[in-house]
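Objective 1b: paired records.
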Amino acid sequence: MGRAVLAENYTQEIEAILAKYPSDQKRSAVMPLLFLAQREYGTLTNEAITEVGELIGLQTTEVASLVGFYSLYHDRPGGKYRVQVCTDLPCALKGAQAFADELCEKLDIEMGETTPDGQVTVEQVMCLAACDRAPLFQLQGPNGFRYHEDQSIGSAMALIESLRVRGQVDRAHRLTAS
């Protein structure tokens, strides 16, 4: 994969993204370009990260630091849906760690693993900014992401099963990363 993949396949989208920023500040387009690359490749490989950097004049390490910081970017393959449970201390005090452990047990996977059907990956993340609503998780899928607060194992498993049956997040209630 080379730089040309995004540049050739998404010329109009890239131009539209870059047009939102002054020409001397095109590096500010890094986050939407990362979303575009992640949508294209499914995960942000070193090559994809380099490709985004080349488009806006950033070093690979500068772009990679953003990928490592934000839970919306993925540098490892995962399931069609990512259930990202906040287990930071305030949420853990409200039962988030036990929730995450039980969720993995119900899905018969370890934290960070993907179910055998390739549909669900459960991950721990830091701070989803809703500690008062823990346990909670951020669900990421092909149609964007959505927060699910005040969860129980029953409600989380019902959602996961409905995703498996329907195959998509309810479009009427999704948040998009644009």
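Objective 1b, second protein:
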Amino acid sequence: MVSNLLKVVLAIETSCDETAVAVVRSDKQVLSHKVLSQKEHVVYGGVVPEIASRAHINYLYDLTSQSIEESGCDLADIDAIAVTSGPGLIGGLIIGVMMAKAISSVTNKPIIEVNHLEAHTLLIRMFHDIDFPFLVLIISGGHCQFLIVHDVGCYQRLGSSLDDSLGEVFDKVARMLNLGYPGGPIIEKKSIMGDSKSFFLPRALINRFGCDFSFSGIKTAVRNIVVNQKYIDNDFICNISASFQDCIGDILVNRITNAIHMSQAINCKINKLVVTGGVAANHLLRNRISICVKDNNFEVLYPPTELCTDNGIMVGWAGIENLSKGYVSNLDFVPKARWPLESIKRSS
């Protein structure tokens, strides 16, 4: 185990289209946080991996220097370096890992490879006193899954998407409607002004056993409606957005109810659901989820809205959680485009 003295961790996140660096302390203080969301992808309606990698190369060094300076620390004050090592876009991961390894080598400080999904999952413990075990729903641009969080580095998957992630479907629907990228916030805003009963969309897997998801049928149904619509005006966009959001809400309520029952059958002490990832910032979906969870005698917790999307703070906190367990990495680890959370293996 690592000493209980305050630890300072430098964190680097480059798994997708955010270049982020933070300096986080083990008493839950954020000493600095820099994040640059790459605007280059907007014109393409989604993330272009090569453009993302080049942007990380252009921004990461300066962002790291600025974050260290803003924290009031120098490299000698840093106790460890935490870096996202997967899952994600391999080009960006390589750049972040190379930077972290260089700093670790020069300073002789320990390095911690962080699973991106673990970072999203454990962030809640920075803001709430929540003990293990608990249930988590990760809903983001690349992932959609339920897991039981037994401890740091110990996860059990209950269900996941069989096709698209939820954030991916939001982006694709927004692209069909020429709304721009990222699609989630725009669709949420449009849906507020629409009629959720205007169009019927299929609720895949609803009322079936388990807590897997399938969103490809919804995407196809929206495309068919858009293709057959003669006039795509603002009223149409608001109504299809509202119908889409309502459909997603129904699916989440059904799948969450099943996941709660499944988790309690495994461990009756589980009574909290954490919802995290970029889509967890959607306030309309939060309202649906919160009602459902309360009806099932559970408590639901969300990270701060601004930290639902990728950021360095979550990587730094995951580093601190791992460091507290004595989990550090050798310099020979490699970034991984795929890294299921339940496959994590730790060594101290």
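Strands lie at 8-13, 18-25, 30-37, 80-86, 111-115, 134-139, 144-151, 154-160, 272-276, 299-301. The CA atoms of residues 233 and 343 lie 47 Å apart.
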